[in-house]
User: Fold this.
Amino acid sequence: MSAKDQNDNVSKLTDHLFRREAGKMVSVLTKIFGTKNLETAEDVVQQTFIDAIELWMLKGIPDNPSAWLFRVAKNKAIDVIRRNKHSLQYDFNDSERILLKSEYTLASKMENFWKEELVKDDMLGMMFACCHPEVSAESQITLILKTLCGFSTAEISKAFLTSEDTVSKRLYRTKEFFRKNKIKLEIPSSDQIRIRTEAVLNAIYLLFNEGYNSTHSEELIRQDLIDESMLLCRLLTENPNTQLPETYALTALICFHASRSPGRLSAEGEIILLPMQDRSKWDKDLISIGIEYMDKASSGNSVSTYHIEAAIAFEHCAAGSFEKTNWKRILELYEWLCKISPSPVAELSKAAVVMQMHGASEALKILENILDKKKIEEFYLYHSLLGEIYSRMNDNRKAKHSFENAARLTRSSKEKKLLDEKIIALIN
Amino acid sequence: MKEYLFLFRGGDGRNPQQSPEELQKVMQRWADWMGGLAKQDKLVGAQPLEKSGRKIKGTNKLITDGPFMEGKEMVGGYLICKAGTYDDAVGIAKDCPILEFDDGTVEVREIREMKM
Assistant:
């Protein structure tokens, strides 16, 4: 193997491992150092990967790269503890961590922190800390991506079309909040677990949506965000404390939606609309995994919006062709969704289904009856659906006007292109 | 609650042929014993000591380099814990892993409150 190939292999592998292992490592180290030293935890992980790249390029990749990374991180953590055990910045006095201060027990205690079950608990603890009710939704997602998903500040800013400066500020504010309020990595008590898990699920849902229908990015689908949201969901489904019906429902929802990703874009990366999608490209394995989660989700008495959205997504997955879609069932589900959790997006989706079933003028009635016009007019989807409705009613002037409004409001270049094509089609 | 100082002598560290696995087992026993104390909030601190040392003596501050005595007499480490009575402290000390060696000893001393 040439030196260049070797270097390419190393950098590919470390990128991959960073995505996969950095979240675990940061979580455990934050548990050890305390949340007020989150940055030190991140530094240790960063430095571990820098060491890995240097050494592996020189000497080749070790047999078990992940184990190598964990070992080096442990040793670095031991150095940090030796240097800081009496520092006011650190607190190793609780019964869990006092053993880290004695040389008799430092090494074996360090080893214990990295046991697989504990690592998973720490990742959950990190999720709960990130989704603390007093942290804003944007900051929650930002910190999840940074600490648990191994995203750099630059990657986060790219994924959400914000400046790196804004991302840094969000991270800084959340870390300050942890410091001031002595937030710990822990799974909330039983009286809090439900409401706190809901907050985590909401953050994962937003993360997934951003991946599935990226409003802020050049690419329409961000597979990495979808993968991360699925990973976080699965972690929640594995812990008895967080195995709520909602957790299973959201996981099912993500599986069903993600199963369709391979059919949503052409080879050139252009959007393919649902009626035109090649359904043989949909991921059948993922659909059956989704069905398993859906079964588990129906165990409780509660029905969440995730349940209904998952059921809708399932109906699309189950239809052999666009024409065979069970619109009647989907419409019932949307009506249910609008009842338990009214939102402009749910209303729009309902109107789109009505258009399929009862025609454009019925759909237009629904849009006209939406009370909160001001809010809905900010959504590009509202204008794009209006355009579709007017175009079916052969009112090309209004259709063009609506598509133009939609194109103005979307930040996705792929969506813009699709809308432009619709406008051109109207003129011809 | 009073504080007690345990002084460890002999016992460990004198077998250079010890494999890493054996060493790990020994250290795990220390972690179990001290972990138990920590859970009851009785552990104050503990450290092993290097064999080398310096001794400074008297008004003319005469310095000598150690070691100062044979291995089994040398203090190899210490632990400070909280206990109600001497008996309680001795009870804790009895479980110390150093006593798995015949020449291992734990000296238990109560920390004295200086009368003002």
About this structure: The mean pLDDT of chain A is 90. The radius of gyration of chain A is 24 Å. Residues 3-33 of chain A form the longest helix (31 residues). Chain A is about 70% helix and 0% strand.
